[in-house]
Amino acid sequence: MDLKVSVVVPAYNGGVYIDACARSLLDQSLAPDDYEVVFVDDGSTDGTRERLEAVARRHDHVRLIRVDNTGGPGGPRNLGLDAARGEYVYFLDCDDWLGPEALERMHAMAARNGSDVLVGRMVGQGGRRVPRAIFRRSADRARILEDHLLSLLTPHKLFRTAFLREHGLRFPEGPVRLEDHRFVLPAYFKAEVISVLADYPCCYWVQRADEGNYSARRFDAAHYFSVVREVLDIVDEHVEPGPVRDRFYAHWLRGKMLRRMGGGTLMNYPPDYRRELHAAIRGLALERFTPQVERHIPWNLRTRAYLLREGTYEDLEILAEAERGITVRPVLRASLTSQSSIGVWFSADFVYRDGRPVAFRHEDGPDGKHRVLWELPAVLPTPVPTEVLDATAALPRATVGLHARHRGSGVEVSLPTTVSRPCEDRGAVTLAGEAHLATAPEAPMPAGTWDLRVRMDVCGWGVERKLAGIRLVVTKEGEILVRTGRKAARKQSRLRRGARRVPGLRRAVRLARSTRTRLRA
Hints:
32% helix; alpha+beta; eight-stranded mixed beta sheet; 27% strand; single chain; Immunoglobulin-like; Spore Coat Polysaccharide Biosynthesis Protein SpsA, Chain A
């Protein structure tokens, strides 16, 4: 094939997002003769098709395929794959965009390693969260479990076109769920080489503020978890029963089932739908998941797993309401700037939303050994065994870190952090951190304002919050300045405080700002 990359973009009512997406594809550092863009309009009714027609008329390396609405992105992606002429194909959604060097860097790495699949670094936009572990480092030959590839099963990846066609890999079509899992997971299993490019933000993954995209629709619980069964069948086809299969199964037990049974996720649904969701999840748990799988889930989910199997819906609802809003309470202790580095000292308390500490009780067990038990934040109808609440091994692994987030793009930079445990007051979890950033880092930081955010990981809970009272400003010349005090904290007006209470408003504003920035660039 003469072309290096084909970018396939299914488009359905892309709205203003489609302009930023198209602009990012036209601004690639890869020469236009080396790649093509294949938009597949899936019956848009908001002017998206007309916008894409105009782009295709002006640019020879852009094509547009028009189809009547299929009800899901799978069909348009398959049409784009059939039309692709590149050595590699990248699947991008119409509300996302690429970094300017994304295609050039991803193709170079894939060509160097003979990769069948390459996962390029993704950056969340508009409140979208992106798994961190998968992008801790670049890997020429990544492993599915050890390198956390299951944490990102979206199709935003570079695939060798001949590899997909050789194995007949296609997306399920129509209004179906988890079509990405049923495409990416078989690709992972069949690939000889999977690579991860972690040192460049390739794809900006957008959380839309409206309900116009496919994944925003409320799902039918019975149908959804029947599809999860199909995904588990794919695992069964490639992995023998035993501990390794249990580790694979734990991914879906954790992410698609138990997380929906706790915290804000469960309580945000209407009461009648919560019970429907519980019945579907419990049925699948009893059918396909043995207790051995629970050994591979985060510690904080084990109480939920026990109650899902042995307790009642009321147990899970009470616990979910109590856990809802668990957060970190960070406090800036000091900052110091020298000629070569910036130092930040802070503390972090692990608390419930009402400010009470998430507490652990220290005691001696029947065998005389010291143990640490989670003190449940509410009384449950079903007693929970102490072995389920035992956090003796998990709690010492609690950690805290500091990272900077660019206000405009959402790009994040981790700051090396030294962690200490200054005190433990009645079982409360308090950690202290000391982080440093070079004033002239090896990888230059984009100009603009950067907020510092504290992330705390305790027994499987991962929470983060802005560190008030400090921010970084990177000048156009690359100089990093520190701003502290009340101006850095930005005291909020009544209007701003009121806006915080409107669901989805802050996310919509952030997304509008980032999209505007992208269009002006």
